[in-house]
Design brief:
By secondary structure, this protein is of the alpha+beta class. The chain has one domain: Ribosomal Protein S5, domain 2 (2-Layer Sandwich), CATH 3.30.230. The chain has helices spanning 15-24, 71-88, 111-125; strands at 26-29, 33-39, 59-62, 96-102. The radius of gyration is 14 Å and the shape is globular. The two termini are 26 Å apart. 24% of the residues are buried.
């Protein structure tokens, strides 16, 4: 078993959760990425009325436009960002729900670069521990 898994319960999947993070979350922009983040509060109680976020889970959602490039380029970018999140998620606050939107000119080439950019966005949004 992997030490740092990226399981399906760590992905943002539902439309209502995406809409909640987009509407209530904090938007943070960098040179080539935009991030929306929302931290669920309420301890272990879980979801409450009007709040679809799980209280303790750290989740990632990716939105990559077709204008970013062809399928190979988009998939590589998503793979690098998912792996960077998987390795760095321990540095996030509990209940952090994040949506990352790479801009059209995003040129992330390797994993270390992806981790640096995500960490910088987390620090700017004040969701890092």
């Amino acid at each position: 078993m992997k030490k740092f898994p990226f399981s399906p319960n760590q992905r943002l999947r539902l439309r209502k959760v995406f809409e909640f993070v987009f509407s209530k979350g904090v938007k943070t922009a960098a040179r080539d990425m935009t991030m929306w983040s929302c931290v669920a509060h309420g301890g272990t109680a879980g979801k409450s009325a009007g709040n679809p976020l799980a209280a303790r889970a750290k989740k990632l959602g990716l939105v990559v436009s077709r204008k970013t490039g062809g399928a190979v380029r988009r998939n590589r970018l998503k793979r690098l960002l998912r792996e960077a999140f998987r390795l760095s998620k321990d540095g996030l606050k509990d209940g952090a729900h994040i949506i990352v939107y790479p801009k059209i000119g995003c040129r992330i080439q390797n994993l270390s670069e992806a981790r640096e950019r995500l960490s910088a966005l987390w620090a700017r949004a004040k969701i890092a521990q």
